[in-house]
Amino acid sequence: MTIQYPTIADCVGNTPLVRLQRLPGETSNTLLVKLEGNNPAGSVKDRPALSMIARAEARGDIKPGDTLIEATSGNTGIALAMAAAIKGYKFILIMPDNSSAERKAAMTAYGAELILVSKEEGMEGARDLALKMQAEGRGRVLDQFANGDNPEAHYSSTGPEIWQQTGGGITHFVSSMGTTGTIMGVSRYLKEQNPQVQIVGLQPMEGSAIPGIRRWPQEYLPKIYQAERVDRVVDMSQAEAEHVMRRLAREEGIFCGVSSGGAVAAALRLSQEVENAVIVAIICDRGDRYLSTGVYDEPK
Description:
10 strands; alpha/beta; Rossmann fold; single chain; six-stranded mixed β-sheet
């Protein structure tokens, strides 16, 4: 008998969906979180990273040995660096210099070249530089912000997994919004199964900095974003997101990043408004890539 062993790429997706036991308190609702940190490169971005490269390859847009360029605040960059290593591409990643040391180190560990822009230039500056480098012929930009292969990854995997794991019982889906690929793809799938499922997006409130998610200026709003696919947008403070992130580790044993804390905080708020609901939130990554930032240092 010939055994077909999986490759690392085969291990992306099919992540666990687990029930929160303590944070929800007494409630008729069921609060579930999808552990995307269980993906090989540690985040939900593994899904679109492989999707964007594989689908571009299938179309003949790129071929192994080419140089790819992407602007990223962290998780997508790590995932793309992994995908490029798997498939044999050179990768240049452009990111703000205030990203955590762990994120930078993970990208270079996979063999990517890192270019930093200032905190003031931010992701907008990183995106502009990526397009400038492409215009100069230095590589091909995948552009997660405008690439339909990003939400398609979640339409074909994340959404169906959640539907199957809840037995079609999901009533609310909560996700932080960065590129918006996750919420766009999952919303499209879930609404096709049941138009009554409520889709809740999360953005930082004015003045808050939550890694991986943004309150985009209109001119930089991701082109893949369709406002009609989101029923409600929640503004989240950095302090509340970090507080719930720490509670998840200490009270649920779920070690995650700040945007995941924000998504669960929004789910907890929502749980105060509804009854007999099945609420699913995305835990988009693991907490170990944030330790150097000090967000876990607050006294208990």
